[in-house]
Amino acid sequence: MISLGRTAIRGEGTEQQEGEGLDIASLHDRYLQAVFTYVSCHVSDRSEAEDITAEVFAAALAALPRFRGDSGHYAWLLGIARRKIVDAARRRRRRRELLDTDLTGAERESLGLLLATDIGELPEEAVQHEEARQEMRKLLAGLPEAQREALLLQVVHDLSIREIAQVIGRSEAAANSLLQRARAAIYRHGRGYFLGDQP
Amino acid sequence: MSDPMSEHERLIERLERARRAGAVASPEQQEENLRRLIRAAVPPAEVPESLRERVRALEAAPPTPARPRARRFLPGRPLGWTLAAAAVVAAIAAPVLQPRWVAAQALRRMAAAVTDARSAHQVFWRVSRDGRRVKFSETWYQGGRWRFTDTETGRVNVFASGKLWSYDPKTQRITVRRTSGPFGYNPSGFSLAAMARDYARWGWNSRIRVEGRTRVGGHPALQVVIERGGDSERELLLVDAESDLPISSQFQRETGGRWVTEGIAESRFNEPLPPALFKPSFPAGAKRDNWDALREQWRRRLGAGIARRRIARRLIVLRDLWVNPKGDVFLLYTASKTPGGVYGDWQVDLTDDRGVQYQEARGLEPHDFVTRPVHVEGSNLWPGFSFGGEKLKGKWWVPVTRQWPWQPRRFTLTFHVVPIDHPKLPTSPGGKTPGEAAYTVSGTFSRRVDRAGSTLVPPFMPFMFSQMDDRQIRREEAEARAAYFRQDPAQMYPGSRRQRRPPDLAKALASYYEIARMNEAQARKSGTGPYDPGLWTSIGRVLYRMGRREEARAAFERAIRESTHNDWSRQEPQQLLKGMNSVLAWTVGRPAPLVSGIDLNGKSHSVADYRGKVLLISLWNRFSHELPRIKALNDRYAGREFAVLGVCIDINRAELNQYVRAQNIPWPNLYDDKEYKSEVGARFGYSWDWTPLPRTLLVDREGIVRAIDLHGAALESAVARLMGGGGSAATSSARR
Hints:
The structure holds two protein chains of two kinds. By secondary structure, chain A is mainly alpha-helical. Chain A contains ten helices and no strands. Helix content of chain A is about 70%, strand content about 0%. Chain A starts with a helix and ends with a helix. Mean pLDDT of chain A is about 70; it is low at about 1-20, about 95-100 and about 190-199. Chain B is of the alpha+beta class. Chain B contains 17 helices and 29 strands. Classes of the chains: A mainly alpha, B alpha+beta.
């Protein structure tokens, strides 16, 4: 199970609906890993990621009585996390980017093949292979920050477009547009760049 | 032999083959591939157990009750040694900002706890000149609660649940007050990052730089310097590279070209501290004061006032009149001046029916210098009193002669006010222009006081911004007496209605030396200092006026040495010293300095060019000059061995050019656009502080200075003597 968030919650066998009353204990039981993953994506320093995650839950605890339930707890927590990450970034000027951005030609080609070729089911070892992961990370890192964030929220954190819009503080239409542009960019850089012209 | 081709490369090759065979993924398949690849690239992060513990610990922290947000004010005082001490405290401080609601309080407290240290213990030592370490203060912090002790006075402060308890063993009193944090400025964290953020937020303009790396107890550490440009104080920190928390600090001062450590702080973090430390338990016999209740009592009392009257359209309300055992009179009042209005367009004079002379002291103008309430995030500065939108004002008078024992008397307070508080109208009562003078209306209050108070410090002082103690009161008294005897025209209020008397510089000096002795005693006690540049600047000014130039020079040099910051406290004596040197370069009977300058037409002129002629140097500006008389001299001796050289200390070249043309001034005028900081002026003995304009310098044919500052008829006759070939010209200086 790679996807976090809701899927992971279901995986743990908790059936409580999003938006229902929740105490802080169950909040961190369920979402700690997902929030930590989200923060780790944005913060290279592990101990700082831990600090920010703890801050997120501290803030969540304080704000829990005011939680209106119009978004799920998960999107709400990620929204808090996002603000904390921005605060932390302001505090520490610019941090070193987690992901390198420059893809070599060979990497583009291999990613393009991984994305665009149908060989039945792409084997799990191909997906999990370190080189493939590196290439995908570089490709993601090459995206504008807002696009990357929206795409990761959708794919990794399994959020709906509405929830993504809440987390990143934009309209649903804007979130949708970010996602489309992110995909287009990935295909363009991966497949399109080397394979697009081929028959 | 192993296959050089990796598993990944084999897969790619396989994909390429499939692709060549036309196996292109459908859009759905592509999307699925994309999702799988992204998820694989961003796997779930493994949560360390320490983080789980930290988050679980959040559940246990109880919230505290909500309180209203308070207004805060920005102080205008410089950073001194005391603030350096506050900065130490800042280094281990955490945020306890005013909450709007319970949750915000909980959030901030916990956020602080998790982003920085959860507990801290810091000890601060003062290092005396002989290298002795004396424990100065000790601070503990845990979970938003504080305890700090002042080892010298034995004072203990405990901050918990939005309340600050202060216990003074000397008076056996405990003061309790509600506050947003234990300090004037409440730091947002313990780490270096928090420190940098806070300093920026408070506008302290400190520069924090990493000097190098080292190891402390096997751990990597950063060597950090905190300084402010030009200051002779700095802080050296050792910061744990991993936690970003300070391990130790040294407070240094530059003395005689080298840095001397005057304070040391050592910190320990995240060690459990006994909860009893943060309990406000003090000796049973101590009296308990509720600061908030007392402040409210004072607010009501001052709100009611003791006397009120209208003077023109201004309502003047006396709020409190109090006399201390030495006869100092403290007045609190409002004068229909909004908190935003800072310039006092009124003046208050005090007399009594015993004929005592009073001199106004500084220091009782609560928040006068704040143009509007300024909220500085993280600061917790005492808000002043205001009544109906008017800011409370204070005056403090010191009797020039000793009043011991103090006798009951009737005081007369005379208010001279500009009737309407309006920014466009003249502001100084009794000013020089007729308009201003006509605009002043006076009214008096008469109050009898039968008993003096028992303490030097007025009882309302705890609620004032200027938290003066006995020592400061005594210092200000001496300073006020010195000002009275000094009668320095530069220090006099321009519109002062008080009678001018001849100054008594010897008495002024004696008062200043009394302060110097007080400072020395304090320095002996504390082992550092004394640092009082303002005092030595004043002493230098008085000595200069007494003609004791070398002593004046030494006093200014001492003021520069004692100044800690590169602000006015250092710049003023520097400027005075520089000016003094300029002025003293021109001495009657000595050769004139062979200085030069560029005139308004760009032509260079040097004193040396005029050798063989009688040279009259006229320092002037458009507002202070004696053109007609100098023109007459110039005409009278035209074609003979006489020359005039002008030096302009003016503010505008274009207007000056126009003026010179309109007035048809025939002689060259040196000018350098530097206004009152004129460098060419300085070369010709001008100093903004020391030499009023116009000024004349008379140099004979041999290049010897024959007269300085002669004006009018005296100047004419001096020139006549020199032109007549007589060798004995005027050798004394005299004002017109």
